[in-house]
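#onboarding

Welcome to the new folks! Below is a worked example of what a typical request in this channel looks like: someone posts a single protein sequence, and someone else replies with the predicted structure as tokens. Don't worry about understanding the tokens yet, we'll cover that in week two.

Example request:
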Amino acid sequence: MEFDLTREQRMIQKQVREFLQKEIAPVTGEIDREDRFPEGVWQKLGELGILGLGIPEEYGGSGMDHFTFALVVEQMARVCPALTLSCVAHVNLCAHNLERNATPAQKQAWLPGLCSGERVGCLGLTEPGAGSDAVGIQTTAQRDGDFFVLNGGKMFITNAPVADLALVYAKTDMEKRARGITAFVVEKGAPGFSVSPRIEKMGHHGSPTGELLFNDCRVPEKNIVGRENEGIHVMMTGLDIERVAISAMALGMAEAALELALSYAKARHQFGQPIASFQLVKAKLADMYTEVEAARGLSFRAARLADRTERGGKGTEIHKLAAAAVLFAAETANRAANQSLQIHGGYGYTLEYPVNRFFRDAKLLEIGAGTSEIRRLVIADELLKRGFSAA
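Example response:
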């Protein structure tokens, strides 16, 4: 499959790369230590058009396709995975789902603020007892006239402590399982809606994570996204695109780990020569490069297929390809970060060298957005249902 970039895509890549190097790279250590983003960063992402990628211009977005978004995510993850994670949760999990499933009036109400950076979005799906079993959610929504009353909670929600609106899934009919789920937009300040303090994490410092709490939370019927009891459609249409985005994030992190390993191996001397001259170090570098390029092929191919599918192409191949892309890219990022830290030796184990941050951040990619185990099940189930084609 051809991955040649258009002139516009190369320009966007360059703009994002320059912004990250100028505005973010110098403060990544500070972001990690203080677990926060510098003031004004989110608004700058909006001004640059990153928060509006994939959203039509009529709703305040900057247009473009999933492949372009993947290119941007890749560039961001090479510098600051935490910022990338919050961006993906905001743009991909929240704004893109609204763009695909909301009414024109809802889009006009919510998307411009999300695209500009004036508002922060998040997705409320995972619960304390429902992670991989997404349709097993226990948060309920009972009708009360023109409102629905939500009760329950969502756990491990990226951007929750700073979000202005959340796309939340709740059971409107407990007996119907997947066919009894409805998607709602819950806005900050809604009666009965609160957010827990930040959850401290081993990695992705700077990207705030928290719990969404609903205690007789009243949400107007007009905030339903899609149709009542058809939230599973909203949920499923977003999963493949989420996997594509996370695969691009993993790719960027793996590239960064390789770059850090190369730089250190050439600078570090032992036994009177740079360690890059040692055969076992060379083998590590070669393996990292090979896996990075394989991950690139899977991730970019999945992004291209996601675009074709949304334009009316066949919608089955993307399920297993997106799962394969994120499975391989996430595990590649973890292996690359581990090998890069090994090459750094004792220095890599300190907090002074940035490789430690990528080592800590990479692990989430095998857990969040569906575990590696679930991704393997998705791939196998699709193969068993539809067979294998090398086309």
